[in-house]
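Late entry, written up from scratch paper. The run itself happened at the end of the previous shift, but nothing got recorded in the book at the time, so transcribing now.
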Amino acid sequence: MSRIGRMPVTVPAGVDVKIDAENCVTVKGAKGTLTQKFNPNMKITVENGVVTVERPDDEKQNRALHGLTRSIIANMVEGVTNGYSKQLVLNIGYSHQVLIDETDGITFEVPDTNTVIVNGPDKQKVGQIASEIRGKRPPEPYLGKGIKYSDEHIRRKAGKAGK
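Output as recorded:
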């Protein structure tokens, strides 16, 4: 059995989990609503505020999908209760403005001049937007300039050796 797949997902109060006939899971909570369709081989059940995922057999694909399905459902429940956020530290140095638009469900906070916090209920979207922002100017190891995550450490390299 998958160590992650066999763990139950507890559903906190105020969160509603519904499972469609085609394994389409909808999670509603205070931060929003998330919907995801899963492989029909996985058996997803909700009983007494606990979501369990079971697989039909021990084929390689079903073993891989077992833990993945459980992790995605756990991330959906966590996202609609607490939400996700990524903090970015800006040190761009461009002469022009770099504009990034907010998308559906994703918001930006700017607590000070060099920090941006990306918030939202969907972990995948928050990570994707934060990655796109970081991609505008990735951190470089020689001067330390660029956009980096707040918990990321950039290993600095020595510059050119003189004669």
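Residues 31 and 82 are 7 Å apart (CA to CA).
(Scratch paper discarded after transcription.)
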